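This part of the workshop introduces the protein records we will be handling. A record pairs a protein's sequence with a compact description of its fold. Comparing a sequence with its tokens is the quickest way to learn the format. To make this concrete, we reproduce a full record directly below:
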Amino acid sequence: MKTIKWGVIGTGRIARAFTEALAGTPDTELYAVGSRTAEKAVAFAANYGFTKWFGSYEELLSDKDVDVVYVATTMNSHYENCMLALEHGKNVLCEKSVTINAQQLRDILALAEKKGLFFMEAMWMKCRPAYIRMLEWIKSGAIGDIRYIKADFSNHVRYDADDRLFRADCGGGALLDECVYPLTLVYDILGKPDDILAAAHIDKNGIDLSESVILRYKGAYASVDSGFEVSLKNNAVIAGDKGSVMLGDWFFVTNNATLYDAEGNIVEECSVSEKINGYEYEVEEVNRCIREGLKESPLVPQSGTLAVMEIMDEISAIIRR
């Protein structure tokens, strides 16, 4: 198979975790890393064994041998970084939330289509075996018609004015950073809601520290909590008229999914241990898509990413009225 040469833009925590998966994935080369400073790029390249390093994103993107770039910068920079990468003819995997709002994403998708390039949000949850099996059960009709979904992502984070999570200029807030996961799950199962109810705790700087969201559908509804103020179990339950599915605690990274019948008896269990750290599944998916000449992933379709961003735009408007 063709070895895929990866470039990484950004050298923070998420870039480090993702690079560990890159390093352990077959037929994948740690080709180049780019940072805003040469010092950070040099240190990152030396630590992980990249072939090249660059002291600017522009220099990395100008390297003709880069097959795909992973954008691991803060959310406020995603739009600029993705547009620059696409303008330079690079396939892109961008960390979630992919943009600050839906219009930015529309611009990116339009440019990717114009350039004939691959683009995908790094929603690693959707590439993990337990999540894929959950969707297979539901689509097969194993739990019947969906009646209710409960999914949370809320963990206590000590307030730090310098942390990107609490900085408006970095795209901070629980909605974009955490709520994107349960909202993506709900959309994958029920699609766009007919109506949305939401309330939030917003601080003096306009940062949503927590929110509760109800998404209403004909015959069904979903309940979602997210935030930095309290730690929850963060599991997910999808209930139908014939049974239910439960994803384990921290559902978006869980290795475990369980299918129950209407009486609560276990019908089937799925448990798949990570090969590296869980990011390898999206690495493998991007590699496969690029090798096959696909412009988007069937596991993480662009239409779904855009729909979730539009839902978050609506929630943001509601909680800031």
About this structure: The chain has two domains: 4-124+278-296, 129-271. DSSP finds nine helices and 14 strands in the chain. The two ends are 53 Å apart (CA to CA).
